[in-house]
DNA sequence: GTCTATACGCCGATAGAC
DNA sequence: GTCTATCGGCGTATAGAC
């Protein structure tokens, strides 16, 4: 397809999102200017508005994209037993979040900078993800494999615990991500058994 | 003690910190202006500088004050057994954090807005708090009461799980904070037993 | 699609009167 | 201790040339 000279829409768009993701994660949405994002990409500030109508939409697109990816990448197999499903969930959650620390950070820290409408849409996606875990716990309880007083609370407790890995784990430290995953699985398994 | 007319140092100072705490928690440090804080207090922006040398120090004082309170309020009694100490820690952590959601929110979300020196000081206080929990877990492991592969990881996992209560718990909901505490204690106890 | 230039406003912080 | 006034700078977003 013919293109006007100087046209880079197909490559600049992703680069804008990557730069915004990195800078928002490092400095926070409110503290990062459109000029700073443009400088990171290597264009002038005005050019960004070819790729997003405004800064708010740029933030929302990053968060919605992250949550959509998270839901699409889910590994749950209802044909397995509840314990195997739970173990797969723990491993998946840690691995997925470990692979994209910037997006995870933004998804948790910048919720308050979303407009009410955008906040509601992101929250709906988060609830959908939580429901996936809760259905596993509920199946385990019904099968008599798990003992959990309240599956909703256990869901939130487990997700908070697992996501917390991102706040302290650094590659090259005392433990590998696989060892950490094994230990978290051990704690989760015992907490619901 | 005689005072100049218009002098309100003893009352305005706390009100500045309260307003900053509330506004930082709601909108984020970077998005809240000194003018907005002044308006909340009912003074002009310039008057704030009688109570803090700059905005950064105001943030630091809030975070350091919160962490110092947290450490001073600790209820640990080494004379008790490890399980009783752990149960007391869980109840204390949930109660203390539940009582000051704004300070907790700021302490977690605004770390990146601290200068490197201030960040190091707040982090040292946080590590001190974590060490309190880890010593409980270590005693329990040595006494053969707890079974934990790595006390440092278990410490971080438990704190993340407990602090997570603040992100979803709302008074007047389905469960009271006491019922929630009982369920978290049940999960923590089993995770380390 | 990107550039330069700019409109318009708020930012943190300070000076000096009262 | 608080006020008013102000400095110099940076914020988002847009207009119009190329």
Automatic annotation (TrEMBL), chains A, B:
It comes from the Bacteria. PROSITE patterns: HTH_TETR_2. Signal peptide: none annotated. Pfam families: TetR_C_24, TetR_N. Residues 10-70 form the HTH tetR-type domain. SUPFAM superfamilies: Homeodomain-like, Tetracyclin repressor-like, C-terminal domain. Keywords: DNA-binding, Repressor, Transcription, Transcription regulation. Residues 33-52 bind DNA. One of its GO terms (molecular function) is DNA-binding transcription factor activity. InterPro entries: Homeodomain-like_sf, HTH-type_TetR-like_transc_reg, HTH_TetR, KstR2_TetR_C, Tet_transcr_reg_TetR-rel_C_sf. This is TetR family transcriptional regulator.
């Amino acid at each position: 397809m013919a293109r006007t000279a100087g046209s880079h829409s197909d490559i600049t768009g992703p680069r804008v999102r990557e730069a915004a993701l990195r800078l928002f994660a490092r400095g926070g949405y409110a503290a990062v200017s459109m000029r700073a994002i443009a400088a990171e990409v290597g264009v002038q500030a005005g050019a960004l508005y070819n790729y997003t109508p405004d800064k708010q939409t740029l933030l929302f697109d990053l968060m919605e994209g992250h949550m959509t990816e998270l839901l699409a990448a889910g590994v749950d197999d209802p044909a397995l037993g509840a314990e195997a499903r739970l173990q797969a969930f723990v491993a998946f959650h840690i691995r997925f979040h470990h692979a994209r620390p910037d997006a995870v950070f933004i998804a948790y820290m910048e919720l308050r900078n979303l407009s009410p409408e955008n906040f509601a849409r992101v929250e709906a996606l988060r609830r959908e993800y939580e429901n996936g875990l809760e259905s596993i716990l509920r199946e385990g309880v019904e099968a008599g494999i798990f003992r959990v007083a309240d599956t909703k609370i256990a869901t939130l407790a487990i997700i908070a615990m697992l996501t917390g890995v991102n706040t302290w784990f650094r590659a090259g430290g005392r433990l590998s991500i696989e060892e950490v995953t094994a230990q978290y699985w051990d704690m989760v398994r015992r907490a619901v058994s």
